[in-house]
Amino acid sequence: GKGRCNVTNNKDMEQFIQCYAHNGKFLYTAFHTLSNQAVKDFFEQMGVPLKIERGERVFPVSDQAKDIVKALNKRLRQLNVTVKVNSPVKALLFQEEKVIGVVLNSGDKLYSDSVIVAVGGASYQATGSSGDGYKWVKSAGHSLTEIRPALVPLESPQENIRALQGLSLKNVTLTLVTKQGKKLGDDFGEMIFTHFGISGPIVLTLSSKAVDYWQKNDQPLQAIIDLKPALSEEQLNDRLLREIDQGHNKQLKTMMGNLLPQKLISVFLDYVALKPELVLHQLQKSQRQSIIKGLKQFTFMLSRPRPLNEAIVTAGGVTVKEISPQTMASKLIDGLYFAGEIIDVDGFPGGFNVQAAFSTGYLAGVNSAKDTV
Question: pTM value?
Fold first, then answer.
């Protein structure tokens, strides 16, 4: 969360299930065992006041992710938990159909009554989620849903789009459409143009649909931005007529400054094939209609997602059919549990992935403790 830590979301727990691109229903028991309210209560009790922002996102009042880390470490000390930092894990240790510990890269073996695999996915590798957990999972006989990026920026092959690098748009609607005209999804909010294409909250939210489509189709997608979603075409036409009436001797590029960010004007006018120097009283009805259509349907191509390591979240992972949703225990190997992003579940932006990690981690922790001899 840009160093702020979006710890959860304040939506009703029933709504949470709808905020996952894949397998949200698998989390039903986890969310009702450790809810978003329970997470908020925990951090408040640990001395971290929280606040709710747009989209029901929950952050520490301090806007400091380190305060969340401090609270977790404080709780470990209160509970007299010993954290042993050894060399990285190389493999899981098995005895027949039970996990009995792990093998470290150093060659040492750590024995235990249960093991929770909670090492994240393969994205955002700077945090340590290198994808190592997948080979451990396979060694246990588990199946993996294909690993792919989720909550990831999208690339455009068009130079005019990349030329808009750094431009942020607020209160716009982005729609993704296939070459055949099928709508994949839409979202309203903020986005930003980058040196490779587009990013920002609504882009990340829709990115899973784009990635899923590209997994099966080697075809570009259309991105359609409604730059003025609050206005109908008729209302936009009236607005343009007023602008023309009030400044009929002004140039078109000047008038467009009342409708669009400065950086977008030249790209937009080129898109609708109109000269910036055109005087407003010379603007024909057909040209006015072109502007209206461009404002409501500013369209360009998207070619692919950014690489997995640039994704905020990894889609895919341990198949949920092989994990008990009531305990997070493996259905194949005794004593083996899973939590967090290594499971084939990925949520939209807004604190949903962190809540999923807390809730599945809680279930795995409570139930793995019952295996202790």
Answer: 0.88
